[in-house]
Design a protein that fits this description.
heterodimer; A: 174 residues; mainly alpha; 2 domains; globular; B: 410 residues; alpha/beta; Oxidized Rhodanese, domain 1; 5-stranded parallel beta sheet; 18 helices; elongated
Amino acid sequence: MSDSSRAKPYMNPYLAGTLLGVVLFLAFFISGSGLGASGGLNRMLVYVQNAVSPEHIDQVPYLLKMAGGDTNPLDSWIVFLTIGTVFGGFISGLIGRRVKFETNKGLQINNGTRWIMAFVGGGLMGYGARLARGCTSGQGLSGGAGLSVGSWAFMFAVFAGAYAVAYFFRKLWN
Amino acid sequence: MTAFPLPLADIFGHWGSYGVYALIGVAFGMTLESAGFGNSRLLAAQFYFKDMRVFKVMFTAIIVAMTLIFLSSSFGLLDYNLIWVPPTYLWPGIVGGLIMGVGFIIGGFCPGTSLVGFATGKLDALFFVMGVLFGIYIFGETVSQYAVFFNSSYMGRFTLPELFGVSYGVVVFVIVVAALSIFLLAEKVEALVNNRPVAELPGWARPAAGTLIVLAAIVMIVGQPDNGDRWQAIAAESQPRLDGREVQIAPAELLKLMNDQKIKVIPLDVRAEKYYNQFHLQGAVHVPLDEVLAKAEDLQFELANTVIVTISNDELEATEAWKVLKAESVPNVYILEGGINKWLDTYASDRFRKENKIHLRELEQLAYRFDAATGARHQAAEPNPDLLDLAYTPKVILELKRAPVSGGCG
């Protein structure tokens, strides 16, 4: 842990974007699959659900695909990509001395409000990401670079949705 | 022969390939965190025009990756057909995107960024991740209520160049130039909102932007390989297999496969419609030779245990179809040895053969006379495999599917 005064500044956004683009390209070049995040979380969740109530899994078609019978929901590339992402974030945070227990929020709300809103927003994100068959990484970045029509429509929708309601939630952040 | 993407599972084994994905994940997490995406307040600033970092990083990444993908495809290094392009389900994608946008401004993260936030100790990211899991849980429980909408407006693998009817290179070039222009605009907007002068770009920014434009222009000029180019690239390897008759399967092998419950056979009948109407195999899919290329994309997404057998009256047209599909990287494609004519020689009744044999004919014409359009109602369309147990040399070897059946968010 380090205090924030020693934290290194974030990378120039265009440089970070270029590096991210190279990583994304390499992911395609090597594996053909691109990047993703919500799919890994999905499968981890289904793994827990399957451990708690396997009968339930076998009744829901959407879950059945991932964990029906003796299918192991963790037996998927995206799960390992997700675990790697967490590790990579931690390593980079250590290098930049940015690993620190804290809550980032606007000045007008307290931590409790921020946490509740983070949970609510996360819920919408998780729900929306499954409906859209991918999140900002899988649909947006990966599909965008591969020139999928649906991914570009999706990306505009995400930005449109956020800009449309940003005004009403300005107190959370300002 | 395009070597990339690599068949990871073949090289490293099933679980070993997952190690590669984990390493890709590490690189992904490191770049996200370095970009500042572990910090929700910084992410949210995007939507008040204070710090357009999200937009800059995301679109820089997209134009860099896109240019490199199509550049390596232009020069035959990378097979774009084997790249995961998310299939388009237009309206579920748009509605899901809008919900995510609202979730973004309320929660301050997206799923990927919340992971690196969580990894660096941000407590709001922890609550966000729990929210994501809850949202996914609710989705799994409710999607069956509106499965029709969830599966609506499906357009398959549908790309922007196909939508606009222009080449991939043109789209790549236009997107690169548009994104770079919008970056300049974004710098001005940030200056205006924060009431400060426009920030100095780092010294490498303009040369880097120039390089990207040049690369995009090269993509546009060189173009993407067409089916003929793709065949040329694999001919050295595939032509000997044709000549060595490694891919021409005997009628008896096809019949056995058609009756194998573990294999899905697609008998791809590439003949003219009149021949197809006169007689075809049970379950044959009729795709005339000139439409085979358009069909290749669908065949990419068949299950891994699918075997495609191209069929014409003799072998000539079936071989052409085989080349087209092979060049498009469709796996497990074979040719029916001797075509329909040999099939009828083998499986039509003695009486039918004696009465209807045409002795003088040209290549790729039917060797038997059909007085009516019997289609698949003919006795030889679905012979009983147990009645005539013929010996043959088995040639079908199921190769592992190389086109990713999942990607993005898996």
